[in-house]
Write a structure and sequence with these properties.
The structure is a homodimer. The first copy, chain A, has two domains: 25-267, Aspartate Aminotransferase, domain 2, CATH 3.40.640.10; 271-390, Aspartate Aminotransferase, domain 1. In chain A, 41% of the residues lie in helices and 14% in strands. Chain A has helices at residues 25-31, 41-58, 72-83, 97-108, 126-133, 157-166, 185-188, 214-221, 234-241, 253-269, 271-291, 318-329, 356-372, 382-390, and strands at residues 14-15, 65-68, 89-94, 112-117, 138-144, 146-147, 152-153, 169-173, 192-194, 208-212, 307-311, 331-332, 334-335, 344-348. The mean pLDDT of chain A is 97. Chains A and B meet through helix 1, helix 2, helix 3, helix 4 and helix 10 of A and helix 1, helix 2, helix 3, helix 4 and helix 10 of B.
Chain lengths: 394, 394
């Protein structure tokens, strides 16, 4: 072991990838408040308020609305392992990396999975899903509302309708949607949704907000065998998060207090205003990217506002451009996942990061980096972005 | 939703329960540094240093030494689900709440568990374990090195010997031992150990340091079926923690940077000095408790230094005393778990909380609280504690 370990100083990155998103100073201050015990009576109050604030953001009235002590990926795992019993059939709409991950996680939970593959970059095809479900006893319809890997928005209404037709539980990945757009759990008939503390909520990573409908709760409470994960078992977690305060795990008061502050900021802004801000900033960024002469991966009608995927021009080196953005501008954007590695850039405008200032910054920085690579863009895109922003909220 | 959500201000508790322990100011400052991305090149350096520092604290040379993105309970789950395949026989020494939890978690992973129950408050009985293992193909010997629920220290050497005799993997719960006392993974032939970021390391809760031996690594890499947890799958996690940097989950840079700082403080103090400090402070507290006329739950030869269980005198109300300590002194201690609820107090002197100042404070506060309840102690215990401390390190 090196005798001298230096303290680590984090540089100030501008986080414009699809997560983590920029964290507000008050959230970092909340995070660094003194640690209190997991059974401290005051922490119960924080948890109760977090649950109420999460219900509001999720559009759910279910008391089974809490945060797992893990990242968004633990949210996916927890949603699926609580609901699935071995042999259950799960229909999963796959159109990107995270849809594919749902397949993997559901299979590890013992499900027989019908994975309905779609071209990356488009919404799910209802007819295709319906056909795949025919003559099967489908227990779960699973979909990703905001596919982080592609920037595709999935309309929930048709899938919700399909779940009803099949008398199946509707499970929604809201990792990149929560806090950026409406999830509307109760209105959409969602039985389980999960997300992360970062991205749309702009907290630090480390917690996974989840919500389960009363119907899901009843199923979980009457399982024939225990949830395979003790750590994520909702039956046990609700004994801790509920009034009973039964010890389950040493939840991090620091993360909870930070999430509480992040949710307070969401609440202060107001959900409608926040969703509209994301929509407006997303339109602005897309207008700028187009004016640069770059190609967007997702057609407007399917595009998310909070994550924009840009095709990397032929001949341009993905990593070199991203390293330049990081080194010269301190800006982080992301590359593609899976088959889109090296072919896409993904720019996130999420939570407190979704601002005109950041749109302008990332466009100017990207234009300069492309010029440095000998790929002059048509335009910096900034004026087009400003114009789209000024065109307002309609 | 209440229109006015107030920001939450955490009171400054003196955390003298068996976890979380007091967090050093520099660790809280590290925690609140700006968030950086999970694939940021600088984070890899932090992770590499964390792995090296953890190897040192664990006494392991294995590169499979990382932190799960969850609390200590996720460490237990991750250690077991990575190793166990359905039908495997696991022998678990149970002498407290966390031994019993290992049984539950191993069963959920599909193991057939031989739970060898012991009276709470004593070490495991090797002859009893050996007898229970006879004529069984035992794959795992599992034990808790420091039983948080009772304050019992488990000697690892005899159990390690048993594991070797049985040609079984040796799995050790080091949740309350890591950073307080030697775990010595390589010397003790431990194949998997897990802990938490809080307690002995005095970081905030939220990460679970784990280590797997090369033999365990080989088994995990050649499993016949995938690890049931995607989130805790070491095969995938090592692609992320290793040089490959394959995306797995959005690890929290804030928690990592805080853990890095906490481990740096451990390293600065030195392991031997740290372990000796815990031993000395533990002896001091026990001497004080005895001088008060209170009864210790665990005989000296089996007692931990970092967690001391005290029998609640007959007629004294557990909760009233603990509420008084919290309200009047801002001191948190804990009650008993399971059958010992209402019968034990548990006082932790862990990590940066293990100090003579805290021994004196908790003794004085406890003595005053007992007097207020009409149960005058023989003595405050402070002078006896000071005397034991002065008697030094032998």
């Amino acid at each position: 072991m090196n005798p001298q370990v230096q303290a680590f100083t984090t540089p100030e990155r501008l986080l414009l990838g699809p997560g983590p998103s920029p964290v507000a100073p008050s959230v970092l201050r909340a995070l660094a408040q003194p640690t209190i015990g997991h059974l401290d009576p005051l922490l119960l109050q924080v948890q109760d308020e977090i649950s109420a604030l999460l219900r509001s953001v999720y559009g759910s009235e279910s008391p089974w609305t809490i945060a797992f002590s893990g990242t968004g990926s633990s949210g996916m795992e927890g949603a699926l392992v609580n609901l699935i019993e071995p042999g259950d059939v799960a229909l999963v709409a796959v159109g990107g990396f995270f849809g594919a991950r749902m397949v993997d996680v559901a299979q590890r939970a013992g499900a027989r999975v019908i994975a309905v593959e779609h071209e990356w970059g488009r919404q799910a095809d209802l007819a295709k899903l319906r056909k795949a479900a025919a003559a099967e006893r489908v227990r779960f319809v699973c979909a990703v509302q905001a596919e982080t890997s592609t920037g595709v928005r999935q309309d929930l209404a048709p899938l919700s309708q399909l779940a009803r037709e099949l008398d199946a539980f509707f499970v929604v990945d809201a990792v990149t949607s929560l806090g950026c757009m409406a999830v509307d759990c109760d209105a959409q008939g969602i039985d389980a949704a999960y997300s992360c503390s970062q991205k749309g909520l702009s907290c630090v990573p480390g917690l996974a907000p989840v919500t389960f409908s009363p119907r899901a709760q009843a199923r979980i409470a009457s399982r024939t065998r225990p949830v395979q994960s003790f750590y994520l078992d909702m039956n046990l977690l609700m004994r801790f998060w509920g009034g009973e305060r039964g010890y389950h795990h040493t939840i991090s008061s620091n993360l909870l207090v930070a999430l509480h502050e992040a949710l307070r900021l969401v609440h202060l802004e107001g959900l409608e205003a926040r969703f509209e801000r994301h929509a407006r900033i997303g339109r602005s960024l897309r207008a700028g990217v187009r004016a640069m002469g770059l190609e967007l991966f997702v057609p407007d009608e399917d595009a998310l506002s909070q994550v924009t995927a840009i095709r990397i021009p032929a001949g341009v080196d993905d990593l070199r451009v991203r390293k330049r953005l990081l080194a010269e501008y301190g800006i982080e954007i992301s590359g593609g996942l899976g088959a889109q590695k090296g072919r896409l850039w993904r720019v996130g405008m999420m939570g407190s990061g979704a601002s005109l200032r950041n749109v302008v910054l990332v466009l100017d920085a990207l234009a300069a980096s492309l010029r440095a690579e000998g790929e002059p863009p048509l335009d910096s895109g900034v004026e087009a972005a400003q114009g789209a922003f000024a065109a307002g909220t309609s």
